[in-house]
Amino acid sequence: MAVSERTAAAVENGSFIRKMFERGNELRKKYGDDAVFDFSLGNPDAPPPAVFEEKIIECVRESGANKYGYMSNAGYPQTRAVIAGRVSKEQQTRLTADDTVMTCGAGGALNVVLKTVLNPGDEVLAVAPCFMEYRFYTENHGGVFKTVPAAADFGLDVDALEAAVSPKTAALIINSPNNPTGRIYSDESLKRLGEMLLRKRKDTGRTVYLISDEPYRRIVYGGRTVPSLFDKYPHSVVVNSFSKELSIPGERLGYIALNPAAEDAERMRAGFVLCNRILGFVNAPSLMQKVIARLPEDCEVDISVYDRRRQTLCKALSEIGYEYAEPEGAFYLFVKAPSGDDAADCERLARYNVLTVPGRGFAYPGWFRVSYCVADKVIAGSIPAFKQAFADCQGGKS
Fold this sequence. Notes:
By secondary structure, this protein is an alpha/beta fold.
């Protein structure tokens, strides 16, 4: 067998998101683009800010030797300094450039952090529902991945997390605003989480690293903000990317920011830099690093387009009879499966060429995800199908 058993199993049980996306491609070939309503992939479609492309051109036109060459594995110092200033404000903690590492997206950042902290057999916890690539990232580095259900309102269930932490627990991943619920974890719940982890450290004799995955930090609605974490727990790391806030997922630029108060911070920083190299990333894309360093601090996509779609979709599905968690951020709607079976309800929608993702793909069956970073006409065209699928379910039609 050429393919390892582990990889073969991963392929078989791979991402529900990608499976539905590929199914959408097949349907488009059969029925045409306008007849397929694909809500499977979180592929941001708001245009990047105009200044972003202006800065690309500016960087490309610059002269100089070796302008596309290697740099430190941690990234350009000037870019890291910009990131340190940004994170210092978000986290209410002063960082320097040395506390940051530029990475190939947030996915690259998570792999670097987990490679740094995991020994074989160590456990990584995450709050479900969650982005299930976390499992693969954990297993990449010999870890064991476990999920802990969120509270009924999809906030943090700190008591459940406390019960799950053991001497084998090396890290806990949180994601706020959350994919797929859009939930922002409250300041109070993060404070309780930090207190709990410090308490468990005394009980188990082991430090749990709290990893906050924050690619949707700047996509929030109704004047909300995402609370800081570094001031609540010293042994914490933020990973982020520019994929969503600038609509540049294909450019693969992200970063790690380490809380300077973290245990063994100096060796953690060195570990991040080494792992960035030996995982094969070597360094984050040079051109994008230069561009980011030149952008205004408030540079981000206009999220009003996502907010409008959020409201349109929520109103339409509510009128049909669907129940859902109202998104506070990100660009996903997590909908309760009317039949109670998320896979069956997603299949029912697919028969009307509507592609959604079963909640079991986020370790949370009974719900399904609808990504609304899609054209307005996709939302408008899908509503009759959502209505018919709901009627079929209520009528007992399989």
